[in-house]
Please model this.
Amino acid sequence: MTQHWPIALFAAVVAVIPFVPEIPPFWLVLLDNIGLAALVSMGLVLLTGVGGLTSFGQAAFCGFGAYTTAVLTTHFGLSPWLTLPASLLVSGLLAVILGLVTVRLSGHYLPLGTIAWGLSLYYLFSKLEFLGRNDGITGIPPLSVGSWSMIGAGSIYYVIWGGVLISAILTLNLLDSRTGRAIRALRRGHLAAESFGVQTARAKLLVFIHAAVLAGFSGWLYAHFIRAVNPTPFGAQAGIEYLFIAVVGGAGHVWGAVLGSGIVVVFKEVLKSAPYGEGQLEVIVFGVLLVLLLQIAPEGMWPRLSAFWPFARPQAKPRKASALPARAKADSGEGKLLEVEGAQKRFGGVIAVNDVSFAVASREIVALIGPNGAGKSTTFNLITGVLEATAGRISLFGNPIAGLSPQEIVRRGVARTFQHVKLVPDMTVLENVAIGAHLRGRSGAVSSMLRLDREDEARLLAEAARQIERVGLGAQMHQLAGSLALGQQRIVEIARALCADPVLLLLDEPAAGLRHNEKQALATLIRQLRDEGMSILLVEHDMGFVMNLAERIVVLDFGTKIAEGVPSEIKTNADVIEAYLGVAA
Amino acid sequence: MLFLAQDGITNGAIYALLGFGLVLVFAVTRVILIPQGEFITFGAFTYAALSSGTLPRTAQLACALGVIAFCVELVSIRHQLSIRRLVRAALLFVIMPAVIWLVAMIAAKYSRSVPANLAVSLLIVAPIGLYIYRIVYQPMAHASVLVLLIASVGVHLALQGMGLVFFGAEGMRAPPITEVAFSIGPLRVTGQALAVYVIAALLIVGLWLFFGYTLYGKALRATAVNRVGARLVGVRTVLSGQMAFVLAAAIGAISGILIVPMTTIYYDSGFLVGLKGFIAAIVGGLGSYPLTAMAAVAVGLVEAFSSFYASNFKEVIVFTLIVPVLLLRSLAVPEVEEEKD
Model:
């Protein structure tokens, strides 16, 4: 859904710049530097802005790329073009190793960890004999094609900016795909993504590698541009600078990286020529600006500028595509689908769910009710694998599912919505819903980047669109999920769950925040789903809604089941009335 | 071996102090205080300057920052201006640093006493912490930990640059706090090392008592857990943040003063020293004082031994150490919350 002509225009402008008559060669050097920085920051945009993983250590990956080619070309006389894959491979492999250790770090431990290994690697570069210690390696050959050596700033310019454009397009392609949606769900809403089969740890590692390979590529270019390497440009300071660039440009936007590098590189140059010199002022201004920027415009410059963009993004309906294969549904109300036997969940000394047993048959609507704190949502979390039961058995089609991961449980046909809406607010409704179909597509990162995933992608989006129409939100398909009313967001969650093609649908307070006629429509939809062969287990506080809809009701109070039966029985059950209203005096 | 151990423990004690400063600030404000290193440098330079009878330029820095903080304060209270607020702001941000400057001038001219110089140094550096908080962090107190962290990096860069402008690229060293020295068996214990131990121990116990057993300490902790909740029960969260930064700046300054007689301090030395305090604080999960203390001593020991056996790779070893530690920590505390920002 990206527009192509602005990119083509940008590419044309970039290609023409060196031909501008009497352009100072120094400008080309600056542009080369901007391109090099943009590559690294682009990785950071994906890593930090989109994925929410802050890294201060990207400069180290540049270092790996640069040193790899430096060693291979000077010690072993390899051609620079041969060392490109080697440089990318080394950065990528180290990203796997560092990523396996660091990416698991949660919250603020991750950036701290990256500072630590960033520093440690910097010292490593400056201490190792075969990397030339502090002096580094000199005499690196320039890139050459045939007899043409790219020695000047104007000749390597095309390699650098060609690299920037290709990387940007590949990165944009990646973001606009099945894998991309998983990545974009990392920062806000990974719990929900996991419930639809996204392997978040793997997605994190993937962006980590992507960012590292981009940095390694930049390092490789740097080595053949400057034709010497030493540890300084790969230290902690540089790592911080790259992050700064991403923040300045707009950490969530690929083109923000290019914009940010332009601003920062030019700005640094201006500061350098200021009378103070020696980089003292540079550092101070740098720090002060970073703070000011975070206080005033934490979202960066790109969103501010692109707000002036006069052309609206195309909002095409997903094109028609063949339907995804669907799971076989039960055709009668026979047989037990879900069985919960003696489930128990303790949080320390608190027993949230105590010895709860119930079952859901095929083609049945069962409601789970009870006062606040009764353990309803905890029961949902036990069934979907978000929490592991302390004791008891949970089985689906007679197969135990307790202890399985949420990803595995949704694969078996259990999809859910959340009590507290968990959508990715800065993704459209369509994209959010498509996450629900994650397991029904199979395109990976590489095929997405190369746009080989279009058939698969079209089917996923068509399915998402179909479910959105079905729940009645067709008009809101291209709006950002965060802009919808809370009640509508709950409905979006239902559409997302339906995308997973479930046999059992778990709805956590689906009617909360809905108006009367919306509730009616929801009830109709749920009955229709049941008639098509789905079973529904729902938690709901609106008694009118539950009593009219549910075929059977399970009542929890303080983690214990106190009643079970058809609505008319529950209405008159003394224990239930006591739990809700207290004992009559 | 024993010398190495002694060296390690002395450094470890200083790292422990720094670790406490970090834990304290993080616990109260959720700021990961990377500029802690600059407080070390400032403390060291101030004390060294006073010992050599020159006016420490940190006094001017404090004044300058105070004036900026005053402006920021004015802007933020412009809609609810009152004489009382105005006087308070002027006192805190303009008059106080001016008086301190005066005191510093007098001390530089006449004072040759170690305790007096120490006290004046603290008096100069501690308000810098307050002003930094007022200027940078207070306006963004509700930002996520990550945004605050990046801001911290900005503050660190700016302060380090100012360090270079104010003190120049030359290193500084100060005379030891006491000249006393005695021997226990083969070990020579200097008064300086003893001072390090005593001050570290006092601060550790002091902080522990303060946070565990006083109402004010508990209020600071409450701010850390839930700002809104703390405000609702009457804790003044802004004051808590300012308090935490003053304490952290003072702790950083003390560490600097303790170090500067032992090693030469340059304008950028503080950052590296501070980072080692970090490792300790992180091992303690940015929350536990006793764990931080133990970790700090361990870092000191590892550093001492690796500088002896593999001096080239000292920093590599120390900083690589943090990664497995971080990993253990984040596995120990399973992630449940989602980023909200």
